[in-house]
C-alpha cells in the first residue's frame, strides 16, 4: 500500500511539458525503477527491537559467584549480538528513570528492603532513596521521574497493612495512596505500573476467593476503579499509548498474555504460555514489540504478526523486565522465528 502511494506521488511530479508518447513512457519507466528500489529498501529496514532492557537474574555470576537476584541490562542494537551485562548489584524490580540516566531497584538486606538508584553507565555507587525501610515490591517510576510507586509495608507496620506508596524523589517523603481494608488478612499486590500520562496507576491485588484482579488508581483523587473481575490477572503493564494494559491471566492448564482496553474493558488474548516458568513482560516504548521472559531467555513478540524472536539468554532465572528506549539504532534485517515449542501456542491477534 505504501509503495502504491509513492508511485502515485511520483506520477504527479511528472512534468506536464512531456507530451510525446516516448517521453512519457521513459518517465514512467524511470519512476517504476525508482519505486521498486524504494520499496526494496523499505522492506529491508523493517522495525526491530531497540533500546535497553533491565532485569534481575537469579543464578551464577563470574564476579559475584552464586547470588540472589543480580541486576543486568541488555542493549538492543538491531542485530543478533545482544549480550547480558551484569551491573554487579543485588536487586529486584528494576525500573528506568527518564532517559535512562538512573535505574531504580529494590534491594534486601538483613530482612528489610529499601529502594536504591544507580547510574547504569557507572553503576559502582548506589544511592538510597527510601528513608524508611520496609518490605517493598513492584517498583514503577512516574513518566517525569519525580515520583516512585511501590507496594508493601514499613518496618513499623504488619503485613496486613500492605498498601501502595508514592515517594517524592526530591524530598524522600512517602505517602500511602491506597486504603485497602485487610480484615486481618494480608492481601498481596501482584504488579504495578504507572500510566504514560502520569495520572493513574494500574495494579493487581489478591482479594478473597483467591482471585487477582486488576484495578485503576487515580493518583490525584485516590479513587479506585475495577478493571477486571472473577479471574486471576496479574503483572499489568501499560501500553505506550496509555489506552491498554498488558497482563497475564491464569488458567487451569496454561496462562495467557492479554490486553485490555481501559475504556471499553474489552479483553484481547494474545498468546498462551505454559505454567510456572517465570513469565514477565514489558512493552517496547514504540509499542511495536512486547518483551517477555521464559526462565533465562528474553523474547520479543510482534502483536501484529504473532511472531517471536529470541533477544538474549542468561545463565539463571529472569525476574521482572524494564524496557527503555534510547536513540534509534541503525538496523539490519533480522530473521524472525515463529515460536514452535509445544508449551507456547502463539496465535494471531483477533481483530
Polypeptide structure, described:
10% of the residues lie in helices and 47% in strands. The strands form 6 sheets. Strands 1, 2, 3, 4 and 25 form a 5-stranded antiparallel sheet that branches. It is mainly beta and 351 residues long. α1 packs antiparallel against α2 (21-44). The longest helix has 24 residues, at 21-44. The model is unreliable at 1-18, 38-45 and 327-351 (pLDDT under 50). The protein folds into 2 domains: 2-43; 52-346, TolB, C-terminal domain (Neuraminidase). A hairpin with a 3-residue loop joins β14 and β15. It is built from 2 helices and 26 strands.
What is the beta-strand fraction?
Answer: over 45%
CATH topology of the largest domain: Neuraminidase
Q: Number of helix segments? A: 2
Percentage of residues in helical conformation = under 10%
Count the beta strands: 26
Biggest beta sheet summary: 5 strands, antiparallel
* Number of separate structural domains: 2
Q: What is the CATH domain class of the largest domain? A: Mainly Beta
List keywords for this structure.
five-stranded antiparallel sheet, globular, mainly beta, about 45% strand, Neuraminidase, disordered C terminus, 26 strands, about 350 residues
Which helices and strands appear, and what pairs or packs with what?
Layout: H1 2-12, H2 21-44, E1 50-61, E2 65-66, E3 70-77, E4 85-90, E5 92-96, E6 103-109, E7 112-119, E8 122-128, E9 134-141, E10 147-154, E11 163-168, E12 174-176, E13 189-194, E14 200-207, E15 211-218, E16 224-226, E17 233-238, E18 244-250, E19 255-261, E20 267-273, E21 281-283, E22 290-294, E23 297-302, E24 307-313, E25 316-324, E26 345-346
Amino acid at each position: 500500500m505504501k509503495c502504491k502511494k509513492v508511485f502515485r506521488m511520483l506520477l504527479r511530479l511528472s512534468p506536464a511539458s512531456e507530451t510525446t508518447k516516448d517521453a512519457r513512457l521513459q518517465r514512467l519507466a524511470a519512476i517504476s525503477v525508482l519505486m521498486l528500489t524504494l520499496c526494496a529498501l523499505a522492506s529491508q529496514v523493517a522495525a526491530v527491537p531497540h533500546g535497553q532492557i533491565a532485569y534481575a537474574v537469579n543464578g551464577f555470576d563470574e564476579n559475584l559467584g552464586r547470588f540472589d537476584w543480580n541486576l543486568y541490562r541488555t542493549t538492543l542494537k538491531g542485530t543478533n549480538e545482544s549480550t547480558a551485562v551484569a551491573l554487579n548489584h543485588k536487586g529486584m524490580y528494576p525500573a528506568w528513570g527518564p532517559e535512562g540516566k538512573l535505574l531504580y531497584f529494590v534491594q534486601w538486606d538483613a530482612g528489610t528492603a529499601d529502594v536504591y538508584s544507580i547510574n547504569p553507565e557507572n553503576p559502582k555507587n548506589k544511592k538510597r532513596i527510601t528513608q524508611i525501610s520496609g518490605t517493598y515490591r513492584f517498583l514503577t517510576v512516574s513518566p517525569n521521574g519525580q515520583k516512585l510507586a511501590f507496594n508493601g509495608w514499613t518496618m513499623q507496620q504488619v503485613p496486613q497493612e500492605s498498601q501502595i506508596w508514592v515517594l517524592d524523589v526530591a524530598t524522600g517523603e512517602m505517602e500511602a495512596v491506597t486504603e485497602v481494608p485487610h480484615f486481618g488478612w494480608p492481601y498481596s499486590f501482584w504488579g504495578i505500573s504507572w500510566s504514560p500520562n502520569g495520572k493513574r496507576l494500574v495494579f493487581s491485588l489478591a482479594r478473597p476467593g483467591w482471585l487477582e484482579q486488576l484495578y485503576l488508581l487515580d493518583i490525584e483523587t485516590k479513587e479506585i476503579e475495577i478493571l477486571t473481575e472473577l479471574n486471576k490477572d496479574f503483572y499489568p503493564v501499560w501500553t505506550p499509548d496509555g489506552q491498554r494494559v498488558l497482563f497475564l491471566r491464569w488458567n487451569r492448564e496454561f496462562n495467557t498474555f492479554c490486553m485490555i482496553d481501559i475504556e471499553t474493558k474489552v479483553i484481547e488474548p494474545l498468546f498462551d504460555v505454559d505454567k510456572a516458568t517465570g513469565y514477565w513482560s514489558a512493552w517496547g516504548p514504540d509499542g511495536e514489540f512486547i518483551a517477555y521472559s521464559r526462565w533465562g531467555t528474553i523474547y520479543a513478540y510482534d502483536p501484529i504478526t504473532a511472531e517471536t524472536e529470541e533477544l538474549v539468554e542468561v545463565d539463571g532465572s529472569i525476574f521482572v523486565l524494564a524496557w527503555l528506549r534510547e536513540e534509534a539504532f541503525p538496523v539490519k534485517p533480522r530473521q524472525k522465528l515463529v515460536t514452535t515449542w509445544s508449551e507456547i501456542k502463539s496465535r494471531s491477534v483477533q481483530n
